[in-house]
Amino acid sequence: MAMGCREVRQDIEGFVLGALPPAREAEIGAHLAECPDCRAAEEHCRLLLCEIKRTADKVTPEPDWERTVRSAVAAGIQAERRQSHVRRVFAVVGSMAALLLISLTLWSIADRTVNPPQIKTATKKDSAIGGGLVSERWRYESVRAAPGSVADGVIVQGASMYLLRDDEAVSCVVAIDTATGAPRWQSECPSLGYLAADRSRVFCLASGGSRTLDLVALDASDGKVLWRYSQGAPHRLQGACHPIPLEDDRVCWTIHSTIHMLDAKTGKPIWTRPIADEGPLSSAAVKGEDLYVVTGRGLHCLKADSGDESWRERFAEEMCGQAQPLIALAGKRIYFVQTRLGAAPKLFCMDLDTREVIWKRSVSGARFLLAAGEKIYVRGRRILALDSRTGETQWAYSAAGCNPLTLVDGLLYFVDTNKHGSLVALAQRTGRKAWELPDIRSCDAFTKIGNTGYIKTRDGIVHALVLCSAAQPGLEATANGR
Ligand SMILES: [Zn+2]
Predict the structure, then answer these.
(1) Torsion angle of C-alpha atoms 432, 437, 442, 445, degrees rounded to 10
(2) Cα 11–16–20 angle (5° rounding)?
(3) Do 247 and 287 belong together in one domain?
(4) Residue 342 included in any domain
């Protein structure tokens, strides 16, 4: 480390948090302009804070994660007490963010060493993994994995998987071949995650040169940067959504209180629309010519080609929320979850033609919403399947955890983090357990393509799992009989 770098690193958390005296901030800013190593450290710190912020913004964090953090915080304070810069961070921030930053770092280190992966690579003799239902095709290690983060999720598009890989102090996007697990490329552009992809591009968020949060498009064939869009507003480490690639080479990105519609080929804005003073925006849901976004105060319908407002519905008091709303579209209806501090989140079903609320109900701890056909699935304290016409519970399944629900070919997949954790598949219709794979802990979505499932576990390993015939739909009765 060169002269000056050590001092800069000691204050880097304070710098990112905006907690330093102006003179010191200017010194560090000048150093960062000259020193790529320290810029990388700053980037890493921003990523961690981004994740913490996301987690802290959730009104109801995952119960077991909360416990983990609490105990890690206690251990972290003991372990780090002697380091003076840590004390300075506590002093200047005085908030959960600094505690979480340290505990998160320690926790992820501890998790990698204490908790080795339990899945074995399949051999001819060793076919009894998951009761003979699953064998591992390949695995890929050292993937970024922060507990509770939505930033570092892996995505699968076509024959490639995209993920964030820790490369020394920074994270970069890596493409791997889903058939073999072999890396195809690693981007040179440091990324904050929030990955999305269309057929020819990978989109991710990255820190911009002038303290902004940028949307970057990478060439899906080689990882080269195609374009970078700077949305102008300062890096506020919150309110970011995953970019949403649309048909016709457009990409829609919601950040803070503004929706950006970009040309995916060039990164040029087609339109941008701020929605001020209504609290955090949901991600945008696009259907044909209409784009919908829910705020803490109302529902907005915009023209997808111009951003002009078609109509807006201001909510009655009971429909207003304070956290980022969840949103799902199905047919002529929009479903959204609003959260208020100190109250159970509420799910509303609204008819888009009449703009009337058809039904509403409490959904305790809701953090994920999926609308599919006749049913609405909610992941909260339990997993609920609701009748989309009435909102009534059709079945419920008790499971802890935070990973998104995945619905493929009649099975609903998720990770239950109770005890040692497991990947569970339920029959979509009945809620009966079709099969379960033990020793899986993850906050990341399970993806399934053909007979292969992909999941990133908390130890930073991506597993490609071949599901044997008994774990395939149509044969679920056999698996049930086990
Ligand atoms: Zn330096």
Answers:
(1) -60
(2) 55
(3) no
(4) yes
Cα of 45 to ligand 1 centre, how many Å?
14
Q: What is the Å distance from ligand 1's center to 120 Cα? A: 42
The whole-model pTM stands at: 0.73
For residue 289, being part of any structural domain is answered with yes
Question: Which residues, in sequence order, are bridge partners of residue 314?
Answer: 298
Q: Which residues contact 242 (CB under 8 A, 6 or more apart)?
A: 150, 194, 195, 196, 283
Query: Which residue shows structure tokens 């009449």?
Result: 354
How many angstroms does the Cα of residue 32 sit away from the middle of ligand 1? 7
Tens digits of residue pLDDT in 378-423: 998 899 999 999 999 999 999 988 788 999 989 999 999 887 889 9
- Ligand 1 centroid–CA 8 distance in Å is 7
- Domain boundary pick from 92, 114, 136: 114
Report the relative pairing of strands 285-287 and 269-274 from DSSP bridges. Answer: unpaired
**Alpha helix segments (H runs only) across 228-292:** none
Q: Which domain holds residue 200?
A: 149-274
In a domain, 460, yes or no: no
How many angstroms separate the alpha carbon of residue 310 from the centre of ligand 1?
A: 51
CA 105 to ligand 1 centroid distance, Å: 21
